[in-house]
Design goal:
Layout (H helix, E strand, L loop, with lengths): L7 E9 L2 H11 L3 E2 L4 E3 L8 E5 L5 E8 L3 H12 L4 E2 L3 E2 L7 E6 L5 E6 L16 E9 L2 H11 L3 E6 L2 E5 L8 E5 L5 E7 L3 H13 L4 E7 L6 E6 L5 E6 L13 H4 L17 H6 L4 E2 L5
Parallel strand pairs: 1-4, 5-9, 5-18, 10-13, 14-17
Antiparallel strand pairs: 1-5, 2-3, 3-4, 6-8, 7-8, 8-9, 10-14, 11-12, 12-13, 15-16, 16-17
Bound molecules: fe (ii) ion.
């Protein structure tokens, strides 16, 4: 990689209509741990994975935050993003209790995004095999693939690692196959947020926990083509499109990208195992339910 590159997704900020019920879901069922009134961490070191905000409308994404390695990377990423973003702030110390340094910007489709570094993360991991470890990827729907790839590739330094049907998989500055997925489906909404679990058992225990709490599997369990990760998809609290995943393929510079023809499954099959049924109509609907707020505040 020659230019600056983000290392992955740090956190997502969501609007919720009912804060207390949302916190109950994300702690007791989804198995995140509160770190403040409205912030929730996983078992990994990241200060938090989710920040919730009470909002009358709900069902909105307020911000997606990406990590960069250090201030030099943030400053270099800023120069690239500022040249093409619809609006771009200047790199500065973050106004957060966990410190950090970074900048925020709004892309051409109105997504509020941030790049940060030097956040004061937790000193140790949580010893909880049911807890999500980190955000594995965010899948963004787009109505303008060229402009979106300009932001994520020219701006944030990601590289296209595979393409499958309408999906473009983007690889960052780490060994995970992908950390961002773009869905070419004519919309400008959130497709879903994927949380990395320890292993297949943790995904399946999570699926059981969700089912018992009234959140049945909307698609899965299965194993994807690109990335080779295991998946179960759910309509979470306020129908947030959520995924438990694990086993994301670890790649290096020798990985050979492939296109949609290579990744096409035979008729009747939707995953590597040949196990899952097609996704539910509800999953199809909620893949387009969460829009991005027009203000980044
Ligand atoms: Fe996913």
């Amino acid at each position: 990689m020659n230019g600056p590159v983000i290392t992955g997704v740090r956190s997502v900020e969501l609007d919720v209509r009912d804060m207390s019920r949302a916190l109950e879901f994300y702690t007791q069922v989804w198995k995140l741990t509160p770190t403040g009134a409205h912030t929730l961490r996983g078992s990994g070191p990241a200060a938090h994975l989710l920040k919730l905000r009470q909002a009358a409308n709900g069902a909105r994404v307020r911000r997606v935050v990406f990590d960069a390695r250090d201030r030099d990377q943030v400053d270099r990423l800023h120069r690239n993003v500022a040249a093409i973003a619809a609006r771009c702030g200047k790199p500065a110390p973050l106004d957060e209790s966990t410190g950090g340094y970074g900048f925020d910007f709004t892309d051409h489709e109105g997504r509020n995004l941030s790049v940060v570094c030097d956040v004061r993360d937790h000193a140790s991991n949580l010893d909880d095999s049911d807890a999500p470890q980190k955000i594995a990827h965010v899948n963004f729907n787009t109505a303008d693939i060229d402009a979106t790839l300009a932001i994520f590739c020219k701006g944030l330094g990601l590289s296209v690692i595979d393409e499958s049907g309408p999906l473009v998989f983007l690889h960052g500055d780490n060994t995970d196959h992908n950390c961002v997925v773009i869905a070419k489906n004519g919309k400008t909404t959130l497709n879903h947020i994927a949380f990395l679990m320890q292993d297949v058992n943790a995904v399946m225990r999570g699926a059981g926990r969700m089912k018992e709490a009234g959140y049945p599997i909307e698609w899965g369990p299965g194993r994807h083509g690109p990335g080779n990760n295991v998946f179960c998809y759910f309509a979470g609290w306020e129908e947030a499109p959520l995924e438990y995943t694990c086993d994301i393929e670890q790649v290096d510079g020798t990985y050979v990208p492939h296109g949609p023809d290579f990744w096409r499954f035979p008729p009747g099959r939707a995953d590597r195992w040949g196990l899952t049924d097609p996704h539910s109509p509800r999953w199809k609907r909620i893949q387009d339910l969460y829009s991005f707020t027009s203000d980044g505040a």
